[in-house]
Amino acid sequence: MKKQNLVILISGAGSNMQAIVQAARRDDWEGRFGARVAAVISNRADAPGLAWAASQGVATHALDHRAYASREDFDAALAALVDGHDPALLVLAGFMRILTPGFVGRYEGRMLNIHPSLLPAFPGLHTHRRAIEAGCAFAGSTVHRVTTELDLGPILGQAVVPVLPSDTPEALAARVLSQEHLLYPRVLADLLSKM
Ligand code: GAR
């Protein structure tokens, strides 16, 4: 059976992207990861994840948003790059750009994001600090479909971790991130098995 293509968008370290690339390569991953990572695209040329993907033989593209006059122009160039790889799913993994409604509509139903909180709590930035300040006993991460409402599309999966009394935002972020590396491949495998 021909594997479906995934395109992953990143802006930084790309550790979630790495977890997905590695899961996709293990044919036996829960026996049903029917996809390959066709390309990794970053809006920052110096994103460490981009160099890692290139070192793994994955096609990479850097598209600097600062070179475009408007969000619409950037998103049009991004869509052209993405479409060149014919993705079944477009996977946002630490991609720190707000996308235009036109771009979101183009990939409606096949674009996912991972957000470092238990949505619908704490959309937006500084999620770990906000969870600690709110006195939450639990925090976590959410994989959701992307809609025009920031961080609020339908939820596909969540991972929960405890918030410890001694937690700093950095310590909590690390605990959440390690669970994201299990959550995102699992949600993708589940979705792909139904496509
Ligand atoms: C992840 O924790 C992800 O949930 C978060 O950025 C981190 C990226 O790490 N995403 C967002 O904050 C999106 N608003 P990574 O580059 O190592 O995968």
Overview of the molecule:
The protein is an alpha/beta fold. It has one domain (4-193): Rossmann fold, CATH 3.40.50. The chain is 36% helix and 23% strand. The chain has 6 helices and 7 strands, in the order E-H-E-H-E-H-E-H-E-H-E-E-H. A 7-stranded mixed beta sheet has the order 3-2-1-4-5-6-7, covered by helices on one side. Helix 2 links the parallel strand 2 (35-42) and strand 3. It is globular. 37% of the residues are buried. Bound molecules: glycinamide ribonucleotide. The site of glycinamide ribonucleotide has 15 residues, from helix 1, strand 5 and helix 6.
Give keywords.
single chain, about 200 residues, alpha/beta, Rossmann fold, 7-stranded mixed sheet, 6 helices, about 25% strand, binds glycinamide ribonucleotide
Task: Give the SSE map.
Layout: E1 4-10, H1 15-25, E2 35-42, H2 48-55, E3 59-62, H3 71-83, E4 89-92, H4 101-106, E5 111-115, H5 127-133, E6 138-145, E7 155-162, H6 169-193
Parallel strand pairs: 1-2, 1-4, 2-3, 4-5
Antiparallel strand pairs: 5-6, 6-7
This protein binds glycinamide ribonucleotide.
Query: How much is the average pLDDT?
Result: 94
Corresponding CATH superfamily: Formyl transferase, N-terminal domain
Q: SSE order in H/E notation?
A: EHEHEHEHEHEEH
Strand content: 15-25%
The total tally of domains equals 1
- The 3D shape can be described as globular
Strand order in the sheet with the most strands: 3-2-1-4-5-6-7
- The parts where pLDDT drops under 50 for at least 5 residues are none
CATH class: Alpha Beta
The structural class is alpha/beta
Give me the count of strands.
7
Number of helices: 6
N-C termini distance? 13 Å
The profile of the biggest β sheet is: 7 strands, mixed
CATH architecture: 3-Layer(aba) Sandwich
Q: Percent range for helical residues? A: 25-40%
Ions, cofactors, ligands: which are bound? glycinamide ribonucleotide
Radius of gyration: 16 Å
CATH topology label: Rossmann fold
